[in-house]
Design brief:
By secondary structure, the protein is of the alpha+beta class. It is built from two helices and five strands, in the order ββββαβα. The strands form two sheets. A three-stranded antiparallel sheet has the order 4-1-5. The protein has a two-stranded antiparallel sheet with strand order 2-3.
Length: 75
């Protein structure tokens, strides 16, 4: 029996019966059901989004405030 995977909605799309999905909504779909929506950029695997978020958090470089430049007068 095929297993369903959890996907997160990135862009709303009609889900049938006059209803629409909402951004951030989690859906359990088969790969066949999600294929076209993933290609269109409307949803992504929840695990992939979480992995991207973790890598972007770890790649953040702490910054130090800029120091005011000083110049010396030429004598």
């Amino acid at each position: 029996m095929p297993s369903r995977k959890q996907y997160t909605v990135l862009l709303p799309f009609p889900s049938g019966g006059g209803h629409w999905s909402s951004i951030g909504q989690k859906l359990e779909l088969l790969d066949v059901e999600a294929n076209a929506l993933r290609s269109a950029g409307r949803l992504e695997l929840t695990s992939v989004l979480e992995a991207r978020k973790q890598t972007s958090d770890t790649q953040a470089i702490p910054t130090t405030p800029a120091k005011k430049a000083t110049t010396k007068k030429a004598e």
